[in-house]
Amino acid sequence: MKHLITLLMLVAILCPAFSQQSNKISGKVYDAISKEPVQGAVISAPGVRAMSDARGEFHLLAQGKQITIASVGFDTAFADANGEKLAIALRPHDRLLQQVVVSANRTAEKRSEAPVAIAVISKETIDDTKAQRMDQLLNKVSGVNMIALSNEQHQMSIRQPITTKSLFLYMEDGLPIRTTGVYNHNALLEMNMAAAKTIEVIKGPASALYGAEAIAGAVNVITQAAPAFTSGSISTQIDNLGYKRADAQLGTSLGKWGVIASGYYANRSNGPVDFSDFHKSIATLRTDYKPNDKMNWTNTLAYLDYNADMTGSLDSLKFARKNYTSQQTFTFRSVYALRYKSMLNYQWNKQSSSSLSFLFRDNSIKQNPSYSISAMPNTTDKSKYRGQINENAFQTYALFAQHTQRFNWLNSKVIAGATLDLSPQRYNARFITIHRDINSGIYDSYANSDSLLSNYKTGITNMAGYLDYEFSPVKNVRIVTALRYDAFRYDYTNKLPANKVTGAASTVNNFSRFTPKLGLTYNYRGIGFYGNYSQGYVPPQLTELYSSTAVAPYLLPQTFFNYEVGGWLSLVSNKLYADWSIYLMNGSNEIISVLQPDNTTINQNAGNTRHKGIEYGLTYKTAAGLTVRFSGSGSKHAFIRNVAGGINYNGYEMSGAPRFTGNAEVTYKPTWINGLRVSAEWQHVSGYYMDDLNKTRYKGYDVLNLRTGYQWHGLEIWTNVLNLFNQYYATTATAAFRASGTTYSYNLADPRNITIGLGYRW
Fold it and tell me: Of 70, 249, 534, 537, whose CA is between 20 and 30 Å from 505?
């Protein structure tokens, strides 16, 4: 009897357990915003767990139907298996301290482990802003003041005055979009905003990893990968200033392959300023091949066709009278760009990974520039002027190799890489004669000629290697060191006889540079600090070496030395986030035009500058859907040693350098009306000197923008009202002093801009 009772008790205990059947649960995990598959998500149920593969797929045997899905950078999700294959959307969480960045050291890491001032513009922000131009996104970042010129053309200010100099690096998926030596300040118009997933902005030098031109800042546009499921979107918009645009995106995944195509067509006609029409066609095709969890092969092809009238700026009289007429009727800028990149990434194991990338670029800028128009010498005919039509073009064949090795000892990591860039370049300029109507002052026609002003080619070679070592000597502390070596060669061939018009005689120039970096981070319970010392440099541009001179001058790379501290904190259950940075950056060997005894000028390394400032941002998010954000920057940019054209600028502030810039935004997405969003954004640029002798100031400006939209299922409608109060202002203002008098130039900003858009997603 005793044994029988024991047996019955065991049966009573074990039968329920045996009666529970294991459920086979399978599905796919993807990003709710970008629709990309999420690899490495942990799917768990009581007693079991699985991980999503490279395609976001997972399989799990569990007793019960409820599962939990968690992944770094996303909010945790819960699901009930219902016998069908699950599609689980993870929403990127809004805890900014936990953001993952890839630009800081060329590998994915938490923002809190990067000893650098870096900001991320998320996919959600890109979608909500509905930006017509890149500046409408980048100006949300503290310390960034991107200047809109017209039709996506621009200037930049990051830890520098507003400038067209080659002090900024623009990248797509971590690879530069232009080659060193052929910088163009309008390069961001070559970006496809429809293909962007996120945008990362590094403030301060990043040459220790990225090389030349990564001096004052670097912008890295990260493109959208193929979605986990077939999805797409179309949209169209129109505004009251003659702007029209249509966007489209379509992508799918089929087994191990994924493909996505993105692009848009935009044009403007009859804008607020005469002769300001443009059109832009841009498209990106990307494929992702993931044969297993270790390998990812991405191929991207991007194409751009851009053509814009070159209006030129307004003089002081027209600006004061709000006269929008243009003196130009034929000047233009035309840009063609074709980029192909193939990127292979392989994860050998949890501690080791490698990547190999090939990049091809075919780029051409043709223009009949308004700034090249000048009076015809040796004539009293005031209707005769001269100008030029030129083309600057290059191709690129480049290889990028990188290996990352992690070690358990001190939680350390080594990143080693090498690059080889071969970029043949060509430039030609043809003389044109221009007729100007004496009564109206309008340049109304021009005639071509057979006279060549310039005709040269340059073989640009850049070989580089870099090493990054990171380790944690104690808990919560991480130290980052990096060193890069670059060797440049310019093989310049002038096809014309050398003189001050056609350029220097054929020659070869070599440049080399070691660029170090040292940084440290400390994090403890949502509060962190960092410090770094870094350098940035850029070799002379081709035009600085070879144009307007019979003999190429001896020039060294311009070098900047940066000292920086900063920090961040996350409080109130991650609802409040703040970051800040303080920097001092000294520029040396800056290239300036120096007056010679014979009253001619020549480029020399004779400039020293000092740049110092503070950048800070604050974001507060409530559970009710309200977000408040403020970004600000206070700075001063001054000449330490600069004597140009016989004028001493030592001690003066640099022109185009506002002491304060700010951007604040309040966004409301009410939880009780799903799909509605409303935001108000304020942008402030303080006054600044219009000239380097600090004689004339521009007052600056304040602009208020309103944005609202509503999404119902896949249908979306939105309205943006930019410059709500119709402020009349210039995005840039300059003054120049000549023997004939002072000339003022104002680049007119858009008046009130009302955009209506309609889109559909599936």
Answer: 537
